[in-house]
Amino acid sequence: MEACLGERHFDCRSAEYDTQTAECRLSSEDRRTRPNDYVDAPSTVEYLGNQCLPPESRCNFKSVPNSYPRYLDIVLSLVSDEMDCERRCYDYTDFICRSFSYYPSGSQCFISGDDRASAGNEALMSRPGTNYYERNCHGGGTPPGPGTPRPTGPGPIPGRCTVGMAEFEKVTGYELQGQRGYSLVREHHPGIAVQCAHLCKNDPLCHGFNLDYNRNECTALEGDSGPTRIDIRQVPGIAYFEGVCLRGSVCGLAWTFERHVNRELRGFTDALFPSKSKTDCEDRCLDERTFICRSASYNYRRKECRLSSHDRFSQPQAFEASLDSDYLENLCSLPPRDRCAYRNLQRDRQLIYTDKSLSAFSDASCQHACDVEREFVCRSYTFLSQTGANTNQCLLSGIAGSGLDNSAFQLLPGALYAETDCRVSHPGHPTIPPPGPSPLPSGPSPSIYPCRYTLTYEKVADFRVVGRDQNQIRTRGDIGISGECLVHCGEMRHRCLAVSIENVRGGRQRCYAIDHSADSEVGLLVSAPELAYFQKICLQ
């Protein structure tokens, strides 16, 4: 895999590995561009498709009536029509969208990373009145046609990142000025941060956005903030989400870092580096392996990056003002939520910084929604006990109100506010072991931890791993759950080495965390239609 990813003489689209001879063969073609050459091979040979390259530009979409994707990875909401769904599939960046279907009654777009090339006829499920579309990469074609112009660029999926992944850092209480902007979305209800982040990430012109929490509106921005930071203005009730291109190991959150302007964590430096930019400092924090980097402080004048195993919560007295620095909090490094309690309970007060709203019938169910939130780090919630039947009663936020002034709250009778308190015992080692005995098998183990490089997954459709018991992962929904399941597995570290996603009757899905992989002595891959197996791998 690493040889294919590192190939510079041609675009390596696939590789074949012979486990018996240890021979690796690289190719500029794959099973989609040369379907007739994709044939059965001896049991010792494995085919590896590179997902880090964009699809062939000559691909169009071929339809199959009365069907939709079986291996559904994500459901996109607020999609206007079938053409909009096709455009979302072309522009999707979290993985390569190979197939899609549009569900008009729900204004939803069903997106899958699989097609008949990877899953055969099992890739489709019957559904009268719904059309299934998959990429056809050997018959010519162009991206979405009349009425949907796309910016020109070097590849079929243009974007702002030529190197690294398009991610966001959140700057609460600030907005970016002086850049050309346009409305991204405006809603009547609060809690649109994740939706705004997704729309911006899939819009080639959007470099970031300002989110007005009072008006429930986000404005896309066509430029970035400058290194002097004079174009960032402090405005209560607004958050600026700056687009950044990160090469480090991200974790699938809607925003990866929380940035505090003119602040630093003083006196708790575990590593110090010269750094050409703030983004480079964030990459160093994400890739640090000798300790868990919970935060970084970047000094613009000295071009200096200081990494720390502490953050503003574990050492609040060290969180100080600094005219030359910004504090960067790594949201991918947080401890498991089972170590968190709730405090600072306040009645009749609502935090205005709502990142997501949903329905809940009690304070306890709203708290649970905060605990299991996977799209961002939920640090507080407000439960509204005196709202109408058509109003979401549970308001989740990625920030805690204890560090804000009274302008962050509004009076609201019947509201109950609470925030998380996640006490972290300071780690002196690279990993924090989970409570209780280790679930790893005894004897030789192929565990990828500690992974000093990039942690990701390889996917095998229509297979499952046999072995010991599997633990079901709780998800918010029961359709399009792949991304949520993989994020949860990543948070479990060595307690989850693989994920199995099962398609059950009615199109619903379930996923399971597995504490061993197919490479272990207790693991074995066997054919299993309607299942998909994801195994953690560590790539250099």
UniProtKB/TrEMBL annotation:
Compositionally biased residues, Pro residues: 143-154
Chain segments carrying region Disordered = 135-154
- Bilayer-crossing regions: none
Where's the Apple domain? Answer: 1-52, 59-137, 161-245, 251-332, 340-422, 451-538
GO term, biological process aspect, one: anatomical structure morphogenesis
Cross-referenced PROSITE patterns: PAN (PS50948)
Write down the InterPro entries for this protein, in alphabetical order.
Celegans_DevNeuronal_Protein, Pan_app
Q: Which PANTHER family match?
A: FI18240P1-RELATED, RE15579P
Q: What is the name of this protein?
A: Apple domain-containing protein
Query: Which species is this UniProt entry from?
Result: Diploptera punctata
Lineage of the species this protein comes from = Eukaryota, Metazoa, Ecdysozoa, Arthropoda, Hexapoda
